[in-house]
Amino acid sequence: MLCPPGGNPRTPRHLISAADLTRDDAVLILDTAEEMARVADRPIKKLPTLRGRTVVNLFFEDSTRTRISFEAAAKRLSADVINFSAKGSSVSKGESLKDTALTLEAMGADAVVIRHGASGAPYRLATSGWIDSAVVNAGDGTHEHPTQALLDAFTMRRRLVGADAGLGRDLEGRRITIVGDILHSRVARSNVHLLATLGAHVTLVAPPTLVPVGVDRWPCEVSYSLDAVLPKSDAVMMLRVQRERMNAAYFPTEREYSRRYGLDGERMAKMPGHAIVMHPGPMVRGMEITAQVADSDRCTAVEQVANGVSTRMAVLYLLLGGSETALPSAAARTEENNA
Q1: Would you state the pLDDT for residue 190?
Q2: Which terminal residue of the chain has fewer beta carbons within 10 Å of its beta carbon, N or C?
Q3: Helix or strand or coil: residue 164?
Q4: CA neighbours closer than 13 Å in the CB half-sphere of residue 318
Q5: Domain boundaries, the chain
Q6: Rounded distance, CA 245 to CA 242, Å?
């Protein structure tokens, strides 16, 4: 959770779960991300906001987009960045999370961005008392991935704001459909929580075997027919089938899965004219999405990557900057006036 506006900047603040964010928290992050995106459009993309601060990317699982995105975000805010990979480190020799955390604390880390295969590891790190750093969850097991949900909401807000002027910029009333491997998806869980907080209506579409137990307690609906929900969807988010987390057969064949739950050009044509197609990546073309859809103007996958940098800049700024105001806009104006 983020520190309340006006809170003590010396108090450790964390972003562990999208469910911890209030509507005001979420809107503040998204509005700040808009300011950060404007900075990205300038010739000089760096701000001095976090100069002298150290951000550690602590990744126990492989990652390309998320790790590089956090690294770019921290560097654009002028923070020093340390990239820590479990492979080839003391972790591979049996070092515990506690001892790794104590090492980072000794190095003076101000923020730790952690991705871990065990659900709950970021929460453990944030509440253990081992470190005084801010902790950001970059994905833990099959639990949550809050910054992915934030960048997804940011992308939706930018793309859909002009579609119906009667609906607010905060996605109030929008209908979002999330399709695929819901059971193993931390992205789906975080999106459901955040989008519900922002007033959107979320529908999950998946084979019964890939729907989690207890989903009836989530703030969303469940459908087993993709064709039934496409005509009323403002955004359709396709998820990859996470075979690396599966130890059994969850559907007969890939061909059967694609036939029932894959998005191709014919299905995309059933969507409203303003609707967009999203994917958190990596995409498996031909499985959950065809090349025709992935390469279309309606697909936002590449935009989501770019928006991830702006959104993560906003998160790091709000966690470490110690201020409610989106100061980057003022900093940008000052720098431009001095140019």
Answers
A1: 98
A2: C
A3: coil
A4: 28
A5: 14-145+305-321, 147-303
A6: 6
* Residue located via tokens 């929460």: 123
* Per-residue pLDDT reduced to its tens digit, 225-245: 999 999 999 999 999 887 655
Our CA angle for 227, 233, 236, nearest 5°, is: 80
Homologous superfamily in CATH for domain 14-145+305-321: Aspartate/ornithine carbamoyltransferase (3.40.50.1370)
Domains 14-145+305-321 and 147-303 share a fold: yes
List, in sequence order, every beta strand (DSSP E) within the chain.
14-15, 54-59, 80-85, 111-116, 134-140, 175-179, 201-205, 221-223, 235-238, 276-278
Q: Which CATH number fits domain 147-303: 1.10.357.10, 3.90.1200.10, 3.40.50.1370, 3.40.50.360?
A: 3.40.50.1370
Retrieve residue 236's tokens: 């359709």
Pairing of strands 134-140, 221-223: unpaired
Confidence (pLDDT) at 302:
95
Q: What is the mean pLDDT of each run of 10 residues along the chain (339 residues)?
A: 44 86 94 91 89 94 90 96 74 74 90 94 94 95 96 95 56 95 94 97 95 95 97 96 63 84 96 96 91 97 96 96 46 42
Question: Sheet containing 235-238: which strands, arranged edge to edge?
Answer: 221-223, 201-205, 175-179, 235-238, 276-278
pLDDT of residue 241: 87
